[in-house]
User: What shape does this take?
Amino acid sequence: MAWTSLALDLLGVFFFAVSGSLLAVRREFDIVGSLLLGTCVGLGGGILRDVIIDAGVPRAFDSPIYLVPPVVAAVVVYFFAHAVQRFHNLLLTFDAAGMALFSVTGTLVALAAGMNPTAAAILGVVTAVGGGVIRDVVANDVPQIFRARGLYAIPALIGAALTSLASWAGWFGVGTGTAIAAVVFALRMVSLRYRWGAPPAGGHHGTPQLPPAV
Amino acid sequence: MAWTSLALDLLGVFFFAVSGSLLAVRREFDIVGSLLLGTCVGLGGGILRDVIIDAGVPRAFDSPIYLVPPVVAAVVVYFFAHAVQRFHNLLLTFDAAGMALFSVTGTLVALAAGMNPTAAAILGVVTAVGGGVIRDVVANDVPQIFRARGLYAIPALIGAALTSLASWAGWFGVGTGTAIAAVVFALRMVSLRYRWGAPPAGGHHGTPQLPPAV
Amino acid sequence: MAWTSLALDLLGVFFFAVSGSLLAVRREFDIVGSLLLGTCVGLGGGILRDVIIDAGVPRAFDSPIYLVPPVVAAVVVYFFAHAVQRFHNLLLTFDAAGMALFSVTGTLVALAAGMNPTAAAILGVVTAVGGGVIRDVVANDVPQIFRARGLYAIPALIGAALTSLASWAGWFGVGTGTAIAAVVFALRMVSLRYRWGAPPAGGHHGTPQLPPAV
Assistant: This one.
């Protein structure tokens, strides 16, 4: 069971890392930038979570095997960037799967470290979306989740909150975890398909012209 | 007294969070971006400080009540962005109050964690200005304090240094703390009013055309 | 010996800080931005490493003397920006020396904190290149190492890996450390001279037009 969990975790890291390496291609970075950016997105969310819960060395540094998926992703993108491009929908699918998975596992790691249920759910969201935010910030883009196509942070929050709630109520198990991840994944995919989006920050009054805030 | 301190802290978080949510409106982010950006600016400085002093879980995660002000800020901005726009000077005022408050409380938290006086003062500055830097970096802007209107980091440094000095000398108390925060606040407001600014990084020789540094 | 090591470390911090302050001049920041940016690049890599290895307070905060080099750098750049500009090749030389030094010392600090050899080498790279990435991200640029002139991250990785390997094999000493740093330095300088570069992220097929990744 631990092997299944590790394998799924590494798979999630891999698909997130591919998204980082593909962004590196689009921004005309070199192979070093591709590897670094892929590492940021694949491992960044989990490292952020582990630094915050302050429970020793982040697992990505404790277990060197976590470095393998970003390397494989950079190599795959180096040789097959054209092919990967064709599977764009496949990529969105795997990104959604990674996000769904991390929203559940990230919350569990935080609960296991003794965080309260609310903080654990927030950290589940950090794990699920943090890598992508780091990717976009480091590559000098606006984070995609700030104006996402489809819903992204909201399904992650729902998954993390349900995981935290189920654990608190004593209902959590392999079945519950799988069901929650499936709901998160489905919500993400359906929201992409039907172009659902969160409302604008300033409501639907048109965008006011604000002066600088500070 | 602890309640007063918590209330003031939460008020500071709230006004900082409003500045993040207003930036989200100006950049046409959605409500998720508004909430995330407001959280970054309201809680980012304190989280940075707590991660550096390595004294367990950052208090923003330990006490879920810290998540309330950013949510309220995002909701207020969603419904009242137009009204908030009119109170721009009010906002600058409260931002200055938050900065003044955090420069004192941030230093105290670092001292309480056993940091030396110099490091505690630096961490007070990190608490006071860190959230704003994170806000600007994440939103893909140049940090405003790098070319601030009026003085910003300098009053924060003065407040943090005075707090650290007063604690070291055994003079710190409610009265001293209030007086220091008032001085910081006044310096910020006066510098805005009279358009004081720090000198340019390269002196007043005009800006040389430098080649790339690396 | 510890004094030599501290002196070299502070010298590395100083030359990195100069690169941050010079970037501040080019971006027309004020003296506060110059100091903050210089501090980020001089101390950022080491702070990142120390936060990840979770071995208490980062040494930059524990020993206030680490704050001296960024202050000196900001003052030097303020008064002598024009002169520093003429010594651009000198600056690249010292930046390379700092990077070479930090790739060795960063790895040693991580090993001393009990990290496994692979993680220690990665953290050596983080120490050597992290400050520069933080500098570029905070100043709203694309990190230079993502599309570096000459090789940068690769020599750092070679230096960190050799340091980790030599320690593991029991061969590490002052002589070995100096030799490794010299190799890293030479590789960086030679790669600049002969315009070596890493291949592009997407291989040599031309840049495909990819759709957004998420």
Observations:
- Chain C touches chain A at residues 51-54, 115-116, 118-119, 122-123, 133, 137, 140-143, 145-148, 152-154, 197-203, 205, 207-214 (CB under 8 Å).
- The longest helix of chain C spans residues 2-26.
